[in-house]
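step 3/5: co-fold with pyridoxal-5'-phosphate
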Amino acid sequence: MTVESPCYLDHNATAPLRPQAAQAMASVFAQYGNPSSVHSFGRAARRIVEDARRHVAALVSARPEDVVFTSGGTEANNLALRGAGRARILVSAVEHPSVLEAADGIETITVDKYGVVDLDALTRMLAEDDAPALVSVMLANNETGVIQPVAPAAAWAREHGALVHCDAVQAAGRIPLDMAGLGVDLLTLSAHKLGGPKGVGALIVGDDVTLSPLLRGGGQERGRRAGTENVSGIAGFGAAAAAALSEIEQARDLAVLRDSLEEGLLRNIPGVRVVGAGIARIPNTSCIALPGVSAETQVMALDLAGFAVSAGSACSSGKVKASHVLQAMGLTEEIAGCAIRVSLGRGNIEADIDAFVAAYREFASRARTSAA
Ligand code: PLP
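step 4/5: write C-alpha coordinates
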Protein backbone atom coordinates (compact mmCIF):
# COMPACT_ATOMS: atom_id res chain seq x y z
CA MET A 1 0.00 0.00 0.00
CA THR A 2 1.21 3.50 -0.71
CA VAL A 3 1.42 6.39 1.72
CA GLU A 4 -1.21 9.08 1.23
CA SER A 5 0.35 12.47 0.84
CA PRO A 6 0.05 14.51 2.97
CA CYS A 7 -0.09 11.92 5.71
CA TYR A 8 -2.27 12.81 8.71
CA LEU A 9 -0.67 11.94 12.06
CA ASP A 10 -2.49 14.47 14.26
CA HIS A 11 -5.62 12.62 15.40
CA ASN A 12 -5.48 14.08 18.92
CA ALA A 13 -6.02 17.53 17.41
CA THR A 14 -9.05 16.23 15.55
CA ALA A 15 -10.00 12.99 13.82
CA PRO A 16 -11.34 12.72 10.26
CA LEU A 17 -15.14 12.63 10.11
CA ARG A 18 -16.39 9.04 10.05
CA PRO A 19 -18.58 8.22 7.02
CA GLN A 20 -21.38 7.12 9.38
CA ALA A 21 -21.32 10.56 11.02
CA ALA A 22 -21.30 12.39 7.67
CA GLN A 23 -24.25 10.31 6.49
CA ALA A 24 -26.24 10.86 9.70
CA MET A 25 -25.66 14.60 9.48
CA ALA A 26 -26.54 14.81 5.80
CA SER A 27 -29.85 13.09 6.39
CA VAL A 28 -30.67 15.50 9.23
CA PHE A 29 -29.99 18.64 7.20
CA ALA A 30 -33.25 18.04 5.33
CA GLN A 31 -35.23 17.89 8.58
CA TYR A 32 -35.65 21.27 10.15
CA GLY A 33 -37.92 20.56 13.12
CA ASN A 34 -37.07 21.99 16.53
CA PRO A 35 -36.81 19.14 19.06
CA SER A 36 -38.84 21.20 21.55
CA SER A 37 -41.84 21.54 19.18
CA VAL A 38 -44.75 19.24 19.87
CA HIS A 39 -45.80 18.72 16.23
CA SER A 40 -44.55 15.93 13.99
CA PHE A 41 -41.56 17.94 12.70
CA GLY A 42 -40.44 18.55 16.26
CA ARG A 43 -41.01 14.96 17.27
CA ALA A 44 -38.86 13.73 14.36
CA ALA A 45 -36.01 16.00 15.49
CA ARG A 46 -36.47 14.88 19.10
CA ARG A 47 -36.16 11.23 18.01
CA ILE A 48 -32.83 12.01 16.31
CA VAL A 49 -31.48 13.70 19.44
CA GLU A 50 -32.64 10.90 21.74
CA ASP A 51 -31.21 8.17 19.47
CA ALA A 52 -27.86 9.94 19.56
CA ARG A 53 -28.11 10.32 23.33
CA ARG A 54 -28.46 6.54 23.65
CA HIS A 55 -25.37 5.94 21.50
CA VAL A 56 -23.26 8.46 23.40
CA ALA A 57 -24.39 6.99 26.74
CA ALA A 58 -23.53 3.47 25.54
CA LEU A 59 -19.96 4.53 24.70
CA VAL A 60 -19.32 5.15 28.41
CA SER A 61 -21.86 2.65 29.82
CA ALA A 62 -23.96 5.49 31.25
CA ARG A 63 -27.71 6.17 31.26
CA PRO A 64 -29.06 8.22 28.35
CA GLU A 65 -30.74 10.66 30.76
CA ASP A 66 -27.32 11.50 32.21
CA VAL A 67 -26.03 12.88 28.89
CA VAL A 68 -26.03 16.69 28.54
CA PHE A 69 -25.12 17.76 25.02
CA THR A 70 -22.81 20.78 24.83
CA SER A 71 -20.86 22.72 22.20
CA GLY A 72 -17.79 20.53 22.80
CA GLY A 73 -15.28 19.33 25.35
CA THR A 74 -14.35 22.86 26.41
CA GLU A 75 -17.92 23.76 27.35
CA ALA A 76 -18.45 20.40 29.08
CA ASN A 77 -15.32 20.94 31.20
CA ASN A 78 -16.43 24.48 32.09
CA LEU A 79 -19.93 23.24 32.95
CA ALA A 80 -18.55 20.52 35.20
CA LEU A 81 -16.09 22.69 37.09
CA ARG A 82 -18.28 25.78 37.48
CA GLY A 83 -21.70 24.18 37.48
CA ALA A 84 -20.92 21.84 40.37
CA GLY A 85 -20.60 24.92 42.60
CA ARG A 86 -17.94 23.50 44.91
CA ALA A 87 -15.84 25.87 47.06
CA ARG A 88 -12.55 24.20 46.11
CA ILE A 89 -11.51 22.82 42.72
CA LEU A 90 -8.47 20.52 42.61
CA VAL A 91 -7.16 19.46 39.19
CA SER A 92 -4.07 17.59 38.00
CA ALA A 93 -1.27 19.81 36.70
CA VAL A 94 -1.43 18.18 33.25
CA GLU A 95 -5.09 18.93 32.44
CA HIS A 96 -6.22 20.60 29.24
CA PRO A 97 -6.48 24.42 29.53
CA SER A 98 -10.28 24.13 29.44
CA VAL A 99 -10.00 22.51 32.88
CA LEU A 100 -7.00 24.42 34.24
CA GLU A 101 -8.53 27.79 33.37
CA ALA A 102 -12.23 27.04 33.86
CA ALA A 103 -12.55 28.96 37.13
CA ASP A 104 -10.64 31.28 39.44
CA GLY A 105 -8.69 29.82 42.34
CA ILE A 106 -8.17 26.35 40.89
CA GLU A 107 -5.56 24.36 42.82
CA THR A 108 -3.24 22.01 40.93
CA ILE A 109 -2.17 18.54 42.04
CA THR A 110 1.42 17.60 41.20
CA VAL A 111 2.30 14.75 38.85
CA ASP A 112 5.30 12.41 38.71
CA LYS A 113 7.91 12.11 35.96
CA TYR A 114 5.45 10.16 33.80
CA GLY A 115 2.77 12.81 34.24
CA VAL A 116 0.77 10.56 36.55
CA VAL A 117 -1.17 12.41 39.26
CA ASP A 118 0.32 12.13 42.75
CA LEU A 119 -2.37 10.42 44.85
CA ASP A 120 -0.56 11.24 48.12
CA ALA A 121 -0.56 14.92 47.22
CA LEU A 122 -4.28 14.70 46.40
CA THR A 123 -5.01 13.04 49.75
CA ARG A 124 -2.99 15.69 51.62
CA MET A 125 -4.76 18.52 49.82
CA LEU A 126 -8.17 17.06 50.60
CA ALA A 127 -7.28 16.43 54.25
CA GLU A 128 -5.93 19.91 54.95
CA ASP A 129 -9.22 21.71 54.18
CA ASP A 130 -12.67 20.20 54.47
CA ALA A 131 -14.48 22.76 52.30
CA PRO A 132 -16.66 20.97 49.68
CA ALA A 133 -14.37 20.09 46.78
CA LEU A 134 -14.47 18.96 43.19
CA VAL A 135 -11.51 16.91 41.91
CA SER A 136 -10.80 16.72 38.18
CA VAL A 137 -8.38 14.18 36.71
CA MET A 138 -8.26 13.47 32.98
CA LEU A 139 -8.30 9.89 31.72
CA ALA A 140 -5.67 10.22 28.98
CA ASN A 141 -3.36 13.13 28.36
CA ASN A 142 -3.68 14.86 25.00
CA GLU A 143 0.09 15.44 24.60
CA THR A 144 1.61 12.21 25.90
CA GLY A 145 -1.30 9.75 25.87
CA VAL A 146 -0.46 8.75 29.47
CA ILE A 147 -3.43 7.17 31.27
CA GLN A 148 -4.22 8.46 34.75
CA PRO A 149 -5.24 6.31 37.76
CA VAL A 150 -8.72 7.85 37.71
CA ALA A 151 -10.49 5.06 39.63
CA PRO A 152 -8.18 5.17 42.71
CA ALA A 153 -8.10 8.99 42.59
CA ALA A 154 -11.91 9.03 42.49
CA ALA A 155 -12.16 6.57 45.37
CA TRP A 156 -9.89 8.74 47.56
CA ALA A 157 -11.67 11.91 46.59
CA ARG A 158 -15.12 10.49 47.26
CA GLU A 159 -14.00 9.22 50.64
CA HIS A 160 -13.30 12.86 51.47
CA GLY A 161 -16.73 13.89 50.25
CA ALA A 162 -15.48 15.41 46.98
CA LEU A 163 -17.25 15.23 43.65
CA VAL A 164 -15.10 13.82 40.85
CA HIS A 165 -14.87 14.94 37.23
CA CYS A 166 -12.93 13.21 34.47
CA ASP A 167 -12.04 14.70 31.08
CA ALA A 168 -12.19 11.58 28.89
CA VAL A 169 -11.95 13.47 25.58
CA GLN A 170 -8.77 11.74 24.39
CA ALA A 171 -9.64 8.31 25.80
CA ALA A 172 -13.10 7.92 24.28
CA GLY A 173 -13.09 5.64 21.26
CA ARG A 174 -9.50 4.60 21.98
CA ILE A 175 -9.95 2.50 25.10
CA PRO A 176 -13.10 0.96 26.60
CA LEU A 177 -14.86 3.36 28.98
CA ASP A 178 -17.16 2.68 31.88
CA MET A 179 -18.27 5.67 33.92
CA ALA A 180 -19.42 3.62 36.94
CA GLY A 181 -16.19 1.58 36.88
CA LEU A 182 -14.18 4.80 37.00
CA GLY A 183 -16.29 5.94 39.96
CA VAL A 184 -16.64 9.51 38.71
CA ASP A 185 -19.63 11.86 38.98
CA LEU A 186 -19.02 13.89 35.83
CA LEU A 187 -17.33 12.91 32.57
CA THR A 188 -16.48 15.00 29.48
CA LEU A 189 -16.60 13.84 25.85
CA SER A 190 -15.95 15.64 22.56
CA ALA A 191 -17.35 14.41 19.24
CA HIS A 192 -14.55 15.54 16.94
CA LYS A 193 -11.85 13.51 18.65
CA LEU A 194 -13.67 10.27 17.84
CA GLY A 195 -14.76 10.91 14.28
CA GLY A 196 -17.78 13.12 14.88
CA PRO A 197 -18.21 16.78 13.93
CA LYS A 198 -16.53 19.73 15.64
CA GLY A 199 -18.55 21.93 17.97
CA VAL A 200 -20.44 19.22 19.82
CA GLY A 201 -19.66 17.31 22.98
CA ALA A 202 -21.28 16.04 26.13
CA LEU A 203 -21.03 16.16 29.87
CA ILE A 204 -22.23 12.94 31.48
CA VAL A 205 -23.75 13.85 34.81
CA GLY A 206 -24.17 11.20 37.50
CA ASP A 207 -27.46 10.60 39.21
CA ASP A 208 -26.79 12.47 42.44
CA VAL A 209 -25.13 15.56 40.99
CA THR A 210 -26.93 18.88 41.05
CA LEU A 211 -25.55 21.13 38.37
CA SER A 212 -26.25 24.83 37.80
CA PRO A 213 -26.38 25.57 34.08
CA LEU A 214 -23.84 27.93 32.53
CA LEU A 215 -26.31 28.79 29.78
CA ARG A 216 -29.71 29.86 31.05
CA GLY A 217 -32.94 30.81 29.39
CA GLY A 218 -34.49 27.53 28.25
CA GLY A 219 -35.35 24.15 29.71
CA GLN A 220 -33.40 22.06 27.19
CA GLU A 221 -31.21 19.17 28.34
CA ARG A 222 -33.39 18.76 31.47
CA GLY A 223 -32.64 22.32 32.53
CA ARG A 224 -28.88 21.77 32.47
CA ARG A 225 -28.00 23.57 29.21
CA ALA A 226 -30.34 26.11 27.63
CA GLY A 227 -30.50 26.60 23.86
CA THR A 228 -31.98 24.81 20.87
CA GLU A 229 -30.03 21.62 20.34
CA ASN A 230 -27.46 21.32 17.52
CA VAL A 231 -29.51 18.50 15.98
CA SER A 232 -27.23 17.69 13.03
CA GLY A 233 -24.08 17.85 15.17
CA ILE A 234 -25.68 15.66 17.80
CA ALA A 235 -26.76 13.16 15.11
CA GLY A 236 -23.16 13.04 13.85
CA PHE A 237 -21.86 12.60 17.40
CA GLY A 238 -24.29 9.70 18.01
CA ALA A 239 -23.27 7.94 14.79
CA ALA A 240 -19.57 8.44 15.52
CA ALA A 241 -19.99 7.15 19.09
CA ALA A 242 -21.78 4.02 17.83
CA ALA A 243 -19.07 3.39 15.21
CA ALA A 244 -16.28 4.03 17.72
CA LEU A 245 -17.83 1.58 20.18
CA SER A 246 -18.19 -1.13 17.54
CA GLU A 247 -14.51 -0.66 16.55
CA ILE A 248 -13.04 -0.32 20.03
CA GLU A 249 -11.06 -3.57 19.66
CA GLN A 250 -9.45 -2.36 16.42
CA ALA A 251 -8.41 0.86 18.17
CA ARG A 252 -6.15 -1.28 20.36
CA ASP A 253 -4.24 -2.39 17.24
CA LEU A 254 -2.88 1.14 16.81
CA ALA A 255 -0.45 0.31 19.63
CA VAL A 256 1.37 -2.01 17.20
CA LEU A 257 1.91 0.89 14.78
CA ARG A 258 2.79 3.27 17.63
CA ASP A 259 5.38 0.83 18.99
CA SER A 260 6.86 0.28 15.55
CA LEU A 261 7.13 4.07 15.10
CA GLU A 262 8.91 4.51 18.43
CA GLU A 263 11.27 1.58 17.86
CA GLY A 264 12.12 2.90 14.39
CA LEU A 265 12.92 6.38 15.74
CA LEU A 266 14.91 5.14 18.73
CA ARG A 267 16.91 2.74 16.55
CA ASN A 268 17.71 5.23 13.81
CA ILE A 269 18.06 8.64 15.43
CA PRO A 270 20.70 9.23 18.12
CA GLY A 271 19.45 11.22 21.12
CA VAL A 272 15.76 10.93 20.31
CA ARG A 273 13.52 10.31 23.32
CA VAL A 274 9.99 9.01 23.82
CA VAL A 275 8.25 10.95 26.60
CA GLY A 276 5.90 8.86 28.75
CA ALA A 277 7.26 5.51 27.53
CA GLY A 278 7.20 2.76 30.13
CA ILE A 279 3.78 3.59 31.56
CA ALA A 280 0.21 2.86 30.41
CA ARG A 281 -0.80 5.04 27.47
CA ILE A 282 -3.67 5.16 25.00
CA PRO A 283 -2.63 3.17 21.91
CA ASN A 284 -2.33 6.00 19.40
CA THR A 285 -0.13 8.71 20.95
CA SER A 286 3.64 9.26 20.90
CA CYS A 287 5.42 12.26 22.33
CA ILE A 288 8.87 12.45 20.73
CA ALA A 289 11.66 14.80 21.82
CA LEU A 290 14.62 15.67 19.61
CA PRO A 291 16.84 17.73 21.92
CA GLY A 292 18.45 20.72 20.22
CA VAL A 293 15.77 21.13 17.54
CA SER A 294 12.74 23.24 18.46
CA ALA A 295 9.32 21.64 18.20
CA GLU A 296 8.20 24.43 15.87
CA THR A 297 11.07 23.75 13.46
CA GLN A 298 10.27 20.05 13.51
CA VAL A 299 6.57 20.55 12.83
CA MET A 300 7.28 22.88 9.89
CA ALA A 301 9.93 20.61 8.37
CA LEU A 302 7.73 17.54 8.71
CA ASP A 303 4.82 19.44 7.15
CA LEU A 304 7.03 20.23 4.16
CA ALA A 305 7.97 16.55 3.99
CA GLY A 306 4.25 15.67 3.89
CA PHE A 307 3.49 14.71 7.51
CA ALA A 308 0.99 16.49 9.76
CA VAL A 309 2.03 16.34 13.43
CA SER A 310 1.82 18.90 16.20
CA ALA A 311 4.13 20.60 18.66
CA GLY A 312 4.08 19.75 22.33
CA SER A 313 4.47 23.47 22.90
CA ALA A 314 2.16 26.40 22.40
CA CYS A 315 2.81 29.75 20.84
CA SER A 316 1.78 32.71 22.95
CA SER A 317 2.34 36.38 22.08
CA GLY A 318 4.97 35.48 19.51
CA LYS A 319 7.04 33.38 21.91
CA VAL A 320 7.16 29.61 21.88
CA LYS A 321 6.23 28.41 25.33
CA ALA A 322 7.22 24.91 26.43
CA SER A 323 4.22 22.73 27.19
CA HIS A 324 2.83 22.94 30.73
CA VAL A 325 2.34 19.17 30.62
CA LEU A 326 6.00 18.40 29.96
CA GLN A 327 7.14 21.02 32.45
CA ALA A 328 4.87 19.54 35.15
CA MET A 329 6.59 16.20 34.44
CA GLY A 330 9.88 17.87 35.35
CA LEU A 331 11.37 17.88 31.86
CA THR A 332 13.92 20.58 31.20
CA GLU A 333 13.09 23.44 28.82
CA GLU A 334 15.59 21.88 26.43
CA ILE A 335 13.53 18.70 26.13
CA ALA A 336 10.07 20.23 26.65
CA GLY A 337 10.63 22.79 23.88
CA CYS A 338 11.81 20.10 21.47
CA ALA A 339 8.92 17.64 21.73
CA ILE A 340 6.37 16.85 19.06
CA ARG A 341 3.20 14.79 19.25
CA VAL A 342 2.46 12.08 16.71
CA SER A 343 -1.10 10.79 17.09
CA LEU A 344 -2.35 7.93 14.95
CA GLY A 345 -5.84 6.96 13.93
CA ARG A 346 -8.05 4.92 11.64
CA GLY A 347 -6.55 4.76 8.20
CA ASN A 348 -2.90 4.91 9.22
CA ILE A 349 -0.92 1.92 7.98
CA GLU A 350 2.56 0.44 8.47
CA ALA A 351 3.77 2.18 5.31
CA ASP A 352 2.93 5.58 6.89
CA ILE A 353 5.11 4.69 9.86
CA ASP A 354 8.03 3.54 7.68
CA ALA A 355 7.82 6.70 5.58
CA PHE A 356 7.58 8.91 8.67
CA VAL A 357 10.61 7.29 10.32
CA ALA A 358 12.62 7.75 7.11
CA ALA A 359 11.58 11.41 6.77
CA TYR A 360 12.28 12.17 10.44
CA ARG A 361 15.65 10.48 10.26
CA GLU A 362 16.65 12.54 7.23
CA PHE A 363 15.38 15.74 8.81
CA ALA A 364 17.15 15.06 12.14
CA SER A 365 20.50 14.48 10.47
CA ARG A 366 20.08 17.65 8.36
CA ALA A 367 19.01 19.73 11.37
CA ARG A 368 21.97 18.55 13.39
CA THR A 369 24.48 19.06 10.59
CA SER A 370 23.33 22.63 10.09
CA ALA A 371 23.41 23.27 13.88
CA ALA A 372 26.98 21.90 14.15
N1 PLP B 1 -9.93 18.08 26.75
C1 PLP B 1 -8.90 17.52 26.12
C2 PLP B 1 -8.04 16.53 26.83
C3 PLP B 1 -8.61 17.88 24.80
O1 PLP B 1 -7.57 17.33 24.17
C4 PLP B 1 -9.44 18.83 24.16
C5 PLP B 1 -9.15 19.27 22.78
O2 PLP B 1 -8.02 19.29 22.35
C6 PLP B 1 -10.53 19.37 24.87
C7 PLP B 1 -10.74 18.98 26.16
C8 PLP B 1 -11.44 20.40 24.25
O3 PLP B 1 -12.40 19.79 23.41
P1 PLP B 1 -13.14 20.64 22.27
O4 PLP B 1 -12.17 20.84 21.16
O5 PLP B 1 -14.31 19.79 21.88
O6 PLP B 1 -13.59 21.92 22.91
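step 5/5: annotate
Residues 293 and 368 are 8 Å apart (CA to CA).
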